[in-house]
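Support reply, case 0932

Customer input (verbatim):
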Amino acid sequence: MPQPRSIASGILSPTVAKGMRLFAGMAALAFFLFVFTAYALPPQRFVVEKIRLLTENGVLCVALDLTVDDEDGLRDLLKDGAELGLSVNITLERKRSWWSNKTMKEDSHLSHLRHDPLTREFIYFASDSSAPPSRDKNLTRLLHTVLRNTLLPVLPLSQLAAEGANNEYHVLVRIDLNYEGIPPWLEKSPVFWSSEVLPPYEEVLPFQY
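Our regenerated output:
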């Protein structure tokens, strides 16, 4: 007559359970590596070759020369279907001794970058939606056209003059590059992802007026 099995006999031994956990962990790692090596690896950081303040037609402006450390990586990322948003946030503050700083102006310039597989062109949509997009099959040439010698208005000098003379100011500039939606290669993947493509770049530009 067959002996009844005890409940304990149905429980995995510690050695077997440990082996299964190890196998599951290795499988998850292999899947993660497959996802991120089968597709392009993004650049690692912004390269800001110039950032300074100047005046243009009576307006205080930020002059910016910008690119990334790996344009080939960015090119592959876009050709794999990623749509990216580039934002430049500018905050102008007047320093005050006894009170918190006075915010004079806050502005955000958001542009968009993607690749058109039909025309094989990279497309840059400027923050001014009324301007036609810039197109080029050569991404490096496109980036040099739209991100070099960029001039972003901050505030008319007349508004600074109204604050009085010899005030201390600073302009805070923050630059971000983010995915606009889930990248195509992660749409059906449970792997955690971040919308951030690059770490933000921040700069403080002080001046007196």
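We compared this against your earlier run and they match. Two observations from our side: The helical segments are 14-38, 71-79, 139-147, 157-161. The longest helix spans residues 14-38. Please reopen the case if you see a mismatch on your end.
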